[in-house]
Structures are given as structure tokens and as C-alpha cells.
Specification:
Layout lengths: L1 H9 L3 H16 L2 H37 L2 H7 L2 H17 L6 H17 L6 H18 L6 H14 L4 H17 L6 H4 L1 H13 L3 H27 L7 H5 L3 H6 L3 H77 L1
Helix pairs in contact: 1-2, 1-3, 2-3, 3-4, 3-6, 5-6, 5-7, 6-7, 7-9, 8-9, 8-11, 11-12
Keywords: Nucleus
Subcellular location: Nucleus
Main location: nucleus
């Protein structure tokens, strides 16, 4: 059945037609369970055949940019349409990777994102590279597949240190992506091996950093990573299973991971709480500023209304005074005539 479905989907002309007839005969002759199997397999194959062209189109545009580097092609990648298409595929794969066979799509979209991330350099395209890092972190977290994101984050940080581009506070935000990446894999059995090269680069980055506040943050992170490496390595040396035992490898340190009592987990939780509190404080200050602005605007409007009202009243009072003086003059003239 699998061969017939494969030939129907990939073959042309007579081969595809004959394969479909075989599937139809099998589905009609045997019981209903076999019909369901045939229907599901053909449907999945049909969807798989038609879901790839859109991603292939994204890859085609990227390939064109890599070969020609024309402004028109570059604009296509830097457009909202292109990034929204990638974002949609990332969300689709992340939500359904465990229920459906989406690994071919995952491999293609990873190639596209990596290509976009390394294509542009400089502060102008920095938001696009940051978005690529967010996509890769999200895919790594949802699929359980290791993606080396730390090198991209360190490239951005080293570039910003060398060029001194942007605000100092932005470096803390970019460094959070690196922390999130390490937190995802802090309980994996291969963490000591995965963290070795990034740790070396972090040490060099710590040496060239001139901002003392940021230097302390990097040093604290390096210490936490080194402690976690020793912790995982010690636990790994105690296990009796081999690396080929995939089930045991996947269950390694899962109790510690769910309990959240390890040193690195506590560290990451504390910095996330600090980030949340900073955001809350920012929003509170922002709301207070909005209230002050609204009150000031109300006072200005009230003062303007009072001025307008006073002006109108002044004009009316002037008219009334003029009328009285005129009437008073007429009465005085009439009295003079009567007296004369």
C-alpha cells in the first residue's frame, strides 16, 4: 500500500493512474479499516504534495538573492509578506510537529531562516536577524531539536560592541535570547558538549566588553553555565545506560527539570521575574504619565473654556453698559426740552 501511494504521488502518466487503480481496488475489496487506511494515506500524500510549493517559493526567492543580490530581490525578503509567510509556517510546524509528519517542512524552513539570518549584516537589518533567532528558538523548543542559536546571538553582541551601535539597554534584550536557548537545553544529557564552544566565545566576549554593568551580567551567566555543565556531567557519569538507549537518554534529568530545583533553572527563573517586574514598572510609569497628561489636558481645556466664557460675558456686559448710557443720554435730553 505504501509503495502504491508513493507511486501515485510521485509517478506520472500511466504509473500514477495504475497506482491509483490499485489503491481503489484494495479499498473496495477489503474491509472498512483498510478503506480508512487508504483514504488517510492518499489524503496525507495529496496534502504533502501541495503544501510544499509555498515554502519552495520562499526558498527560490532566497536563492535568487544569494546569487544575484539585486535590490528588487532583497526587498522581497525584507518585506512583511515574506516574513509573515515564514512566521505562519513556523507556527504551523511548531503546533503540529508531534501529530503529523512535518519534518521535511521543518528542514526546509530551517534552511530558509538560517539563510535569511546570515544574508544581511549591519544595524539596518538587525530586527530581521533578531526575528530569525526568535523563530529558531521557538522551533527548537517545540520540536526538541537542537538548533545552534547562541552563535547568532553572540555575532550580534560582538558586532554591537565593536561598532558601538544602538542603546546599551538593547544588549540586555539580545542577551536574553542566549539565556533562553541555554535554558531549553540545560537538562539535556549532551549539555556539556553543546555549551563548550559558546562558553569559549562568551569568555572572549566578556574580555572585550567595556560596560561594567553588562560585564557583570555576562560573568554571572558564564558562572551559571559552568556550574550546570559540572552538574550534568556528574549525573551523566553515574548513569548505567549507553548513548544508544534513546528512551533512557530522553528521560535523563526529567524529574529535576519538572521540579525546577536545579541551580540554572532557579537562575533563569529569577532573571525572568526581574524582566517581568521591569516591564510592569515601565507600564505603571507609562500609565501614570498618561494620567498626568490627561489631567493636564483637562485643565487646559477648562482654562480655555473659562477664558472663552469670560470674553463672551465681557462683550455682553459692554453692550449692556453702552445701552444704558445711550438711554440715559436720551432721558437727559428729554428732561432738558421739558424744562425749557
Amino acid at each position: 500500500m505504501q509503495i502504491a501511494v508513493h507511486l501515485w504521488a510521485t509517478g506520472r502518466g500511466t504509473i500514477s493512474s495504475l497506482s491509483f487503480l490499485i489503491i481503489r481496488d484494495v479499498a473496495s475489496v477489503f474491509r472498512s479499516d483498510c478503506f480508512d487506511t487508504c483514504f488517510v494515506n492518499t489524503y496525507k500524500t495529496f496534502i504533502g504534495k501541495h503544501r510544499c510549493p509555498s515554502i519552495q517559493q520562499l526558498a527560490k526567492i532566497l536563492k535568487q538573492v544569494l546569487l544575484t543580490k539585486k535590490k528588487e530581490a532583497v526587498k522581497k525578503i525584507c518585506s512583511w509578506q515574506y516574513t509573515s509567510c515564514i512566521d505562519l509556517r513556523v507556527m504551523l510546524i511548531s503546533a503540529n510537529i508531534h501529530d503529523y509528519d512535518l519534518h521535511p517542512l521543518l528542514f526546509t524552513i530551517l534552511q530558509i531562516i538560517n539563510g535569511v539570518a546570515v544574508l544581511f549584516s549591519g544595524p539596518r537589518y538587525l530586527p530581521l536577524r533578531i526575528k530569525c533567532i526568535q523563530w529558531l528558538n521557538h522551533l527548537s523548543s517545540s520540536t526538541g531539536i537542537f538548533i545552534p542559536v547562541a552563535s547568532m546571538v553572540l555575532d550580534i553582541l560582538e558586532y554591537k560592541i565593536g561598532k558601538d551601535v544602538g542603546k546599551p539597554g538593547k544588549r540586555h534584550q539580545y542577551f536574553m535570547f542566549c539565556k533562553a536557548h541555554f535554558a531549553q537545553w540545560s537538562h539535556h544529557i549532551s549539555f556539556p558538549d553543546l555549551a563548550t564552544i559558546p562558553l569559549v566565545r562568551l569568555g572572549k566576549f566578556h574580555e572585550i566588553t567595556t560596560i561594567e554593568s553588562f560585564k557583570r551580567i555576562v560573568k554571572r551567566f558564564i558562572d551559571q553555565v559552568e556550574q550546570n555543565i559540572e552538574f550534568v556531567r556528574k549525573k551523566r557519569d553515574e548513569v548505567p545506560f549507553s548513548p544508544k538507549d534513546q528512551q533512557s537518554v530522553e528521560s535523563f534529568l526529567q524529574l529535576e527539570k519538572h521540579s525546577g530545583n536545579t541551580s540554572f533553572t532557579q537562575y533563569y527563573k529569577s532573571i525572568m521575574d526581574e524582566a517581568v517586574s521591569r516591564n510592569l514598572a515601565f507600564f505603571e510609569k507609562f500609565s501614570e504619565a498618561e494620567e498626568i497628561t490627561k489631567k493636564a489636558q483637562k485643565k487646559i481645556k477648562l482654562s480655555q473654556k473659562e477664558r472663552v466664557t469670560e470674553g463672551v460675558n465681557g462683550r455682553h456686559s459692554g453692550k449692556r453698559k453702552g445701552t444704558v448710557s445711550v438711554d440715559g443720554g436720551r432721558e437727559e435730553k428729554m428732561r432738558r426740552k421739558e424744562n425749557s
